[in-house]
Each structure stands twice: as C-alpha cells, then as structure tokens.
Amino acid sequence: MMAKKPIWEWIPNCQQVFDTLKAKFVSAPMLLMPDKMKPFIIESDASLVATGAVLRQTDVNGDLHPCGYLSKSFNPAERNYEIYDRELLGIVRTLEEWCHYLDGSLHPIVIHSDHKNLTYYRTAQKLNRRQAPWSLFLSQFELQLVHVPGMQMIQSDTLSRLLGKGDRDHDNEDRILLPEALFMHSISTQLY
Asked: I need a labelling partner for 129 at 20 to 30 A (CA). Which of 8, 59, 162, 188 fits?
C-alpha cells in the first residue's frame, strides 16, 4: 500500500469480509454498565488455584450480558481449604469485589455455582474462625444459590484456572512437614 506500484482494489469479496467484521464487532458481548434497578446474576467458580466470577445483567432485549469479570488466585493456605470452603470463598470474594453495585439491590442476587457441596452450609454447622466472618458478611445480601452444571459455566471456570499455574492436584504430595533437622536427638544422661 505504501509503494507507488501496487494497485489496491476494493472488490466485492473485500466488502463482504469488511461487513462481516463490522457485524461481529457490533454483536460481540460487550460489558454492560451495571444497573441497580435490574437483578444481578453472578456465575462463580473455584479451582485448586483460584476463583473466577462473572457479574451479569440482562439488556433491553432480555439477553444476559457480562458487567464484569473477576479472577483471583489462592494463597498457599487457601489452596488447602476444603472444596466447599474454596467455593464459598469465591462467592465472598465476588460479593466483596462488586459490593458497590450489589449493596442495596432491589432484587435477590442470584448466584450460579457448579458445586453442590455448598449445601453443606444449609444445615447448622459449627463455624470456624474463617467461616464466621464470611457468614456475617453474607448476611447483608439477599442471595439465591442455584446449582448449574459445570459444563454450562465456561467463563467462570476459565477465570478460575490461571494460565501457567496448572491444576495443582499434587502440590502437597511428597512434602516433608517436619524435616529431620528440626528434631533434637535425645541426650544421654548416663555417665560412663
């Protein structure tokens, strides 16, 4: 295009490709500005290494669109949580991140989770020091938990699996908790 010789021609095929690109750009799911007057739907997931979430609302046509995305890795201690605690931590993190939108919502906040283990919290439990503040925090929201099969939660599942980190299924295998050097050998009190 910069040289003097080439002749550039806009042929019908070029126009067709251009029109297709324009249509794709305009129809792609765009982030909606959150509207407190509409119900919020959160898709939340947790893996062994991170949590991922998508905040959604419907547009004027009734189609669900994302309002935001969230992905946060677990620290080493959080990776050792039971799966129901990791899933619940994902929900807590999501609500913390978007509480400025969700606080005072006129509608219940619908949370889609692929983990039935959250039903563990439906019955009375003795909460530990980690879970008690979560319970207090969650009590300020009107929540509806909906179980959705994991295969339908592609976006949050992808966000919960950090690139390059891999699933750390075996991150605690073959680890020596107390190395030999920490142990003091008994001292003999017998005199020879």
From this structure: 162
pLDDT tens digits, 17-30: 888 888 776 665 67
Q: Strands, E, within 59-106: which ranges? A: 64-73
Q: What is the pLDDT of residues 106-127, one digit of tens each?
A: 999 999 888 777 766 777 788 8
The CATH code belonging to domain 41-163 is 3.30.420.10
What letter does residue 78 receive in the DSSP assignment?
A: G
Task: Say which residue the tokens 């407190």 belong to.
Answer: 36
- Tokens 């599942």 appear where? 157
**Alpha carbons 51 and 93: distance in angstroms, whole number:** 8
- Cβ atoms of 59 and 29 closer than 8 Å: no
What predicted TM-score, i.e. pTM, was given to this entire model?
0.68
Q: Domain map of the chain by residue range? A: 41-163
Please name which of 157, 131, 67 lies closest in space to residue 105, comparing C-alpha atoms: 67
